[in-house]
Amino acid sequence: MPVSIKILFFADSHLGFDLPMRPRIQRRRRGEDFFANFQTIIKTAAEEKVDLVLHGGDLFFWAKLPNALVTKVALPLYDLAESGVPIYIVPGNHERSRIPNHFGFAHRNIHIFNRPRTFVFEKNGFRLALAGFPFARNIYTQFNFLINKTEYKNCATDVRLLCLHQAISGARVGAANYTFRQGPEIIPAHFLTNDFHAVLSGHIHRAQILTSDSAGRAFSQPVIYPGSIERTSFAERNEEKGFYTLQIDSDSKVPKIEFCSLPTRPMFKIELNLTGLNRTDSLIKIKEKFSTLPKNAVVQLKLVPAFDWEISASALRDMAPESMNVSLAVER
C-alpha cells in the first residue's frame, strides 16, 4: 500500500510586528492579526493530523525580542510538537538567521536549520529528507557551498525537499508585480538541480508556485512560496494570504499542493482632495470618508493639497472606529 506524508507549510509570520509589550498608546495593534492567523495554522495542523509542519523563515519580526513575546510564540509550537507533530524551522533574515534561545524550541520534535543540515522524516518505511540552511546573504556565491554543507546526498531517502528563506529568480511581489531576475541575492534556476522533488521557501510575501524563472527557463521541480500569513504592507493589499498543504505519496513522489486561505484585514490607500475646505470642514470630510469603509480596515490617508495646518495621529484615530488602523501618508 502506498504511504502518504502530509505537510503543512507556512512562512513569514512576522510575529512581534506592531505588538509592543508595554504600549505607550492604546490603539488596535496589527500584531494581533498575525497572532490570530498563527494560532489558526497551529490549530489546523493539529485537527488535520498532518505528519509534519515546516516554517519557511521570519517566524519573528525582530531579531531581539522580549522573552514574554518569544514565549507567546514558542509555547503553541511546543504544544503541537508535544502532541507528536514534528516541526522544522528555517531561520529568516528578520531573525538574523537564528532562532532565539528558549526552552520552548528545545523540544525533541522541533528541528531548526541553525546551520546547513538535513533532517530525515520517516513514516512506515517511506523516508523524506528536508535539506536546508538559514537565510544567507550573497546567496549567488554562497549557494553551492551551503547546499553541499547540508550533506543531503549522504542520506538514503525516497524524497528530498529543499527548505530555504531566499529570493529565487522568477518570484513576483508587490502591486507593481516586480519580478526578481538576477543579482547577488537571487538564486537562478540552474542552481536548483533535479536532486530535489520540490523547493519550499519563505522570504517572498506573495503566495505563488514557480515552474520557470524570469527568463522562462524551467525549474526541475516546483518552487513553492506560501507568502506571509497576513498583509504586512500596502504593497500586499490585494494579495490573498494563507499557507500550503502538500501530500507526497510513496508511489508517485510528486507533491499534491493545496492552498488554504487565511482571513485578512482589508487595506485602503486613499487620496482625499480637500481643496477649498478649511480645517473644520476638512476634518468632517475625513470622518465621513472613514464611515464608508469596513470597520476593520487598515487605512493610509493622503491629503491633497498639502496644508499649513497639521493633524495629529491621535486626532486621526479619534475620527475612525476603534477597530480601524489609520495612518497619514507623508510627502517626501
Would you kindly provide a brief summary of this structure?
The protein has about 325 residues and is an alpha/beta fold. It is built from five helices and 19 strands.
Descriptive key words:
29% strand; 6-stranded mixed beta sheet; 5 helices; 332 residues; single chain; Purple Acid Phosphatase, chain A, domain 2; elongated; 19% helix; alpha/beta
What does this structure look like?
The chain has helices spanning 31-47, 67-82, 139-149, 279-291, 313-318, and strands at residues 4-10, 52-55, 87-89, 110-112, 117-123, 126-132, 159-165, 167-168, 172-173, 178-179, 186-187, 198-202, 208-212, 218-225, 242-249, 256-261, 267-273, 298-304, 325-328. With 332 residues, the protein is of the alpha/beta class. The chain has 2 domains: 4-261, Metallo-dependent phosphatases (Purple Acid Phosphatase, chain A, domain 2, 4-Layer Sandwich); 267-328. The protein has a 6-stranded mixed beta sheet with strand order 4-3-2-1-15-16, covered by helices on one side. Strands 5-6-7-12-14-13 form a 6-stranded mixed beta sheet. A 3-stranded parallel beta sheet has the order 17-18-19. Helix 3 links the parallel strand 6 and strand 7 (159-165). Helix 1 (31-47) runs parallel beside helix 2. The chain is elongated. The model has no long low-confidence stretch (mean pLDDT 94).
